[in-house]
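Ticket #418: bound-state structure for uridine-diphosphate-N-acetylglucosamine.
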Amino acid sequence: MDKFIIEGGRRLFGSVRAQSAKNSVLPLLAACILTEERVTVRETPPITDVACMAQILRELGAEVVFRDGNAVVDSANAGDHRISSSLTKELRSSVFMLGSLLSRFHRAVIAYPGGCDIGLRPIDLHLNALKRLGVSICERDGYIYCECEKLTGAEIVLDFPSVGATENILLAAVEAEGRTVLEGAAKEPEIVDLQNFLNAMGANVAGAGSDVIVIEGVKKLHGAEYLPVKDRIEAGTFLIACALCGGEIEVSGVKSESLGLLLHKLRENGCKIHTKNDKIRIASYGRLKCNRRIETMPFPGFPTDLQAQMTALNSVCEGGALIVENLFETRFKYVPELQKMGADIEVKGRNAFVRGVKGLHGASVTAGDLRGGAALVLAALGAEGTSEVYDLSHIDRGYSDMQGKLKNLGAEIKRVRV
Ligand code: UD1
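RESOLUTION: The complex was predicted; output attached.
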């Protein structure tokens, strides 16, 4: 187990390039099993969620190697359709395997998925959609057993634009017989990326990025080589870090449209932001102002995956902020850790009331989930004195070499064995 030791109070300067998006790479890897031919997903970030997804593919009989930063997946010999509970509990994205396993083998058995402890995270929308495509599902002893004679295209309406359910439907429907029309789809950029990837493999999917996605089933998919979109959440985390510490940085790789509302909120704080192509420049000087209200919503709303980082930022701004978390029930678990650093935040259900303080002070804190952990690192970077952030396994799930990238920007951060 490692910890970060952070000496706060350094301004950030320089540039950083975003990694490939975790939330793209994971469903893309799940999609690799749809074909017997070789698939290369380029520039896969060395994060533990990716390693875990690779392990799941290997357990199913696929060969996965990481070469020059790319994942090369050969699932010609994949034959198993069951994923052990130890792996599914590690990684919520293992649920995508339902769609791709059903496409390839017409059978799938997985344990109930795990992931960050941020709320109930049911998968009823996934299962109901799969039923519409002709899958029989039986849930027993913590496992989900799915099978079908064949998958048949259908009209599916999602009551809520779930990212994972949308992706699972795409994966299940690409090789179904006939046309699937999905209404109420999630519109995240990572859904568009999955559509583009599947089409590069020979699928016929259109409409991703809008409410309605139409999938014409094809007989067979083939191999492909694909470069995923960059990680808007990692990029957003660095922008917020600069806002909080002060300084001027440039984040590249991410289009401003994918971070629209964040950039608006950072301007509201008083940051200067310039965007050009896939580069975003931020400058932050002097004390910033609190955002009056930030409310998380499905894309294009404010991303829940940046909520914790923005709470950390607001905790040192002038005034007060209301942060409303609409997506997950218990996504304020990091708040008691921020309070150890002097933050003045009151949580009531899905609302956090932040009263900005002049500054935070260093403390020993523990990451409890991926984005909450990132928020603690940001708070420590902006705090006066030394902080220790424990349990980096959560942060390692989604950020590759976070300390190296922050160090390059001028932060004083060390990673040491506990
Ligand atoms: C994905 C992202 C995650 C992000 C989230 C919301 C990946 C690997 N993860 O997670 O980083 O925080 O989108 O942007 O891409 N729900 C149901 N029933 C279902 C499915 C979801 O009630 O069957 C609810 C969830 O409990 C949650 C909300 O819908 O309250 C959003 O979940 P969803 O969009 O599915 O998120 P994930 O795909 O799990």
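RESOLUTION NOTES: The domain at 2-19+230-417 is CATH 3.65.10.10 (UDP-n-acetylglucosamine1-carboxyvinyl-transferase; Chain).
TICKET STATUS: resolved
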